[in-house]
Amino acid sequence: MITGGKTMTKNAKDRTFETAEFPEYRVEAYVAEIPVPEYMESCVDIPTFLGYCEACPSYGKTWACPPFDFSVQDFWRSYRSFYMSGKKIIFDTREISRDCAVEDFKKISGQILKKESHALDTELIKLEAQYPGSVALSMGSCDVCGEGGCTRPFGEPCRRPERMRHSVESLGGNVGLSVKKYLKQEIQWMSEDRLPEYFMLMGGLLKK
Ligand code: SF4
Known about the structure:
Number of helices: 6
Organism: Eubacterium maltosivorans
Distance between the termini: 16 Å
Order of helices and strands: EEHHHEHHEHE
Protein name: DUF2284 domain-containing protein
Pfam family, one: DUF2284
InterPro entries: DUF2284_metal-binding (IPR019271)
Bound molecules: iron/sulfur cluster
Largest sheet: 5 strands, antiparallel
């Protein structure tokens, strides 16, 4: 298994947000790679995560989400190793708490998470080119087509198959457990009276 971390500081002050200026945040990167059989044994639970997906409004609404017309188990088994890439997006929440209501923080951090998710997706899709036969795994539902919306509800093929990727969760992967077990990090949650110090994003690359 390989694992490690590096830090990059990002200044959000030069961007326009719906609320006032937002302080700096920084991004730490964590990676690990393990054989697929080990990952399936420790972190993949297809029936449980399919149940969560069924309760999500995106279920069956994008081509990236279940139900799928292929066997998810066979999909995992057709790859040799799983490279996990996590980004820890760290805010100075003591400073934010002074100037920013929880609702504002939710809105602004949501914009930052979307931007960093897209950056991680792009990074992983670029990695595919270096590993023939590999496929990137993304985060959450597919929003590649933006306001144009997904073609799936109309029974039409995916408009951007070269950009659409399934998420780890949609294939039964437990991201919280993966982050803890292999990236050696904890997930934090936001509550009405407490801002998290950081968010974790995790995608990956399945290699042949
Ligand atoms: S790329 Fe577009 S059409 Fe394809 S799954 Fe994503 S939103 Fe749907």
